Amino acid sequence: MTDRELMDIAEAASKNAYVPYSHFAVGAALECSDGTVFTGCNVENAALGSTICAERTAACKAVSEGHRDFARIAIWGEGQGYCMPCGACRQFLAEFSTDMEVLCAKAGGRYVSYKLRELMPHTFNY
Ligand code: THU
Fold first, then answer.
1. Ligand 1 proximity of 19 Cβ (cutoff 6 Å)
2. How would you classify the pairing of strands 101-105 and 70-77?
3. How many CA atoms lie within 13 A of 18 on its CB side?
4. Which one of 55, 95, 101, 118 is the catalytic residue?
5. Rounded CA gap, 104 and 115, in Å?
6. Pocket residue to mutate for ligand 1, from 18, 41, 42, most atoms within 8 A of Cβ
7. How many CB atoms lie within 10 A of CB 12?
8. How far apart are CA 33 and CA 20, in angstroms?
9. Mean pLDDT per segment of 10 residues, for the chain of length 126 residues?
10. What sections of the chain are H helices per DSSP?
């Protein structure tokens, strides 16, 4: 699958975002090494800190279905800047792979690509 195709899946996933507070929809498409793709969207909550980001939604869906070998994630958000994963999501994804690719889109559909280890060089671990 091309990066653009994975990003299109992330965009489609963003349509399910539950965002009554920020009104900022995010979609994620997480591809595992066997080609399986798990989608996610952000799910907000009146207790704002209980909000779950799109990336962690997708990661929890993958792990709970027995998939931990993350290869690539596309993140769709229509902001002025690229929709980068937040710090919590970087740490969460890095638990499973720091070698994965991270594609981050902005309004208009342009995207940038990183290795997770570039975005999260020193993860917490013990
Ligand atoms: N959000 C994500 O879904 N992923 C991120 O990595 C950063 C932020 C969501 C959380 C919240 O619903 C909205 O974007 C605004 O912060």
1. yes
2. parallel
3. 10
4. 55
5. 11
6. 42
7. 14
8. 34
9. 98 98 98 98 98 98 98 98 98 96 97 97 93
10. 3-14, 54-64, 87-94, 116-119
Q: How many CB atoms lie within 10 A of CB 85?
A: 24
Helices 54-64 and 3-14, packing angle to 10 deg: 100
In the chain, the amino acid numbered 29 is: A
Q: Which amino acid is at 30?
A: L
Phi/psi for 52 (5° steps) reads -115, 130
Task: Give the ligand 1 atom nearest the CA of 26.
Answer: 3
User: Quick one: which of 49, 51, 3 has its CA closest to 24?
Assistant: 51
| CA distance to 21, 60, 94, 121, per residue, from 124 (Å) | 30, 19, 9, 10
Give pTM, 2 decimals: 0.97
Rounded Cα distance between 102 and 53, Å, is: 15
Length of the chain measured in residues:
126
Q: Which amino acid is at 58?
A: A
